[in-house]
Amino acid sequence: MSSGTGQSGKLGRRDFEIISSWIKRDAHVLDLGCGNGALLRHLRSQHNVSGYGVEIDDTKVLASVKNGVNVLQADLEAGLSEFDADSFDYVILSLTLQAVRHTERIVSDMLRVGREAIVTFPNFGYWRHRLRVLFGQVPVSRELPYQWYDSPNIHVLTIDDFEIFCAAHGMRVCERVVLDEACNQVNVLPNLLGAVAVYRFDKSVA
Amino acid sequence: MAPGSIGIVSPQTMQFDEPIELKSGAQIDEYSLVYETYGELNSDRSNAILICHALNAAHHVAGRHADNPYDVGWWDNMVGPGKAVDTNRFFVIGVNNLGGCHGSTGPSSINPKTGKPWGGDFPVVTVEDWVQAQARFASRLGIEQFAAVMGGSLGAMQALQWSIDQPERLRNALVIAAAPNLSAQNIAFNEAARTAITSDPEFHDGHYYEHGVVPRRGLRIARMIGHITYLSDDTMDDRFGRELREKVLNFDFGVDFQIESYLRYQADKFADTFDANTYLRITKLLDYFDPAQAYGGDLSRALKNATADFLVVSFTSDWRFSPLRSKEIVKSLVDNRHNVSYAEIEEPHGHDAFLLDDVRYHNLVRSYLERVAI
After folding, report:
1. Mind listing the pLDDT tens digit for each residue in A29-87?
2. Are A181 and A143 in contact (CB under 8 A)?
3. Phi and psi based region of residue A48 (left: phi greater than 0; alpha: psi -120 to 50; beta: remaining)
């Protein structure tokens, strides 16, 4: 799989600010697909968090080390079995959900090793994407900067899809922020007007 | 400044007159350790890095000796001015461990109690004993805390043991191509090597010095066995394949294949420079290494009080100490919420990769150490 962090710069770190606003001080955090470790570094300086990034790519592992972030080189697709249950306060998957193959397993693993999970993903239901599909082409945008043939994104999902997924998999949405292309918060018709969604969720109590 | 060699270096010797109690219960009343240093110790004494050697190496880590310019240190590609372990910034120390055969007190040294070489009577030492001796040695050099303790293979095991036994005395541990203990297969290879030595008629229960002989045949076989485990199948195939030395089969038991020639050369070179008693003891020391043992087999508990930050590196083709073994160490550190980064270098060279010049590997070590405050 490919980590989605190549796309995070496109958000101007707005997702970092949203995630940062949700994280409690001194929390223990696992950042899956941590890229160059910028998010963990940000959270450490803002909230004194501890924790680890997980990254598969050699160059990004090196970049994380340069950033002074704890990084563990591993393939997310192989699962998180090396982490004990409930060992993190938050497990973050930033702009990577659409690019992982074993989505259900990864999301359930996130809620096994973490008390809460945070994901961000590009919303394929965004009106520009719908328009582009209507005119016969796969969406290419700032949040989805790939052609169909070189895209790491193997799952196409919308905000509505994700919420149905949450309900069906025993996940309770704690908070949601939807952003448009200008990184402004979207409050009406999010599945139509939102380019990126940021979710915090936990296990719903049965 | 472009990375370069540290240049001509000379070993020094430090004498210890206070006895050292060993894990076995034995005691060595006096001993000396031979060592080399590279770079300058800063005024705060905060920039020292201890490099621990593995089975086949010693204190000569970097640079060359004036009397033998071909005798380049075993980690010269890693250590030097501008290199990954930058001697312009760090004061780097290599020390030959107790029981070694490159100048430190070992089986070939004279036992002051008998006036004869220790030989087979030299005690079996452990990684814990080595760390204890290194810690004393560091104190004598005036180093209370290392910026880092690092090594590959058995050297990495020492770094790990340091973090457990002397947690306050190192800020970073670089644990490269390591395992938290030896597998049954690892021990089996060591036992085969030891049997080769002890069954050599010239072994004389380790007292061969008095007989004016060395168990060279046994040591050669031991080295061949060990060397095979350091390389990967792919590396051997790439380098030698089934290539013949003389283009024809000889139908005898001399050298037909290039790999046989290479193994014999490695065996001869090793037997010329290494002591069989030291080889026996270091392989046994490897077998005994198991820091989790004192904690009910729980490595996480063993590492609970470690305070160092860790860099753990493994190599995908290393079948001697595979990445899975390094991951056991990483998991134990993660369980304790210790600071650790782990990298798995994809490369074909087997266990020996930690000695080779791989740019991704060296960049990692360099980048990690650049962040180490001094």
Report:
1. 999 999 999 999 999 999 999 999 999 999 999 999 999 999 999 999 888 988 999 99
2. yes
3. left
pLDDT for B1 equals 47
Q: Are residues A107 and A140 in contact, defined by beta-carbon separation less than 8 angstroms? A: no
* Furthest CA-CA distance within chain A: 49
Question: Is B43 marked active-site?
Answer: no
Task: Dump strand ranges (E) for chain B.
Answer: 12-16, 20-21, 27-28, 31-38, 48-52, 64-65, 68-72, 79-80, 85-86, 91-95, 110-111, 116-117, 148-152, 172-176, 309-315, 340-345
Regions of chain B short of the pLDDT cut 70: 1-2
Q: Token digits for B199?
A: 């069954």
Substitution target in A62, A64, A69, A86 with the highest count of B β-carbons within 10 Å is A62
CA–CA distance, B299 with B304 (Å, rounded to integer): 9
Which candidate in B153, B317, B326, B332 is catalytic?
B153
pTM: 0.95
The answer for residues whose C-beta is within 8 angstroms of residue B302's C-beta and 6 or more apart is B164, B291, B292, B294, B295, B332
Interface check for A88 against chain B (CB to CB < 8 A): the answer is no
Is the minimum CB–CB distance between A68 and chain B shorter than 8 Å? yes
Whether B153 is a known active-site residue: answer yes
Which residues in B200-345 belong to E strands, given as ranges?
Answer: 309-315, 340-345
Cross-strand pairs, B304? none
pLDDT at A160 over 80: yes
Report residue A127's pLDDT band, with 50, 70 and 90 as the boundaries. very high
Which of A52, A66, A70 lies at the smallest CB-CB distance from B367?
Answer: A66
* Active site (annotated) includes residue B317: no
Q: What is d(CA B158, CA B126) in angstroms, rounded to the nearest whole number?
A: 10
Q: Specify the pLDDT at position A1.
A: 39
- Flag whether residue A84 sits within 8 Å of chain B, measured between CB atoms: yes
Classify residue B96 by its DSSP letter: P
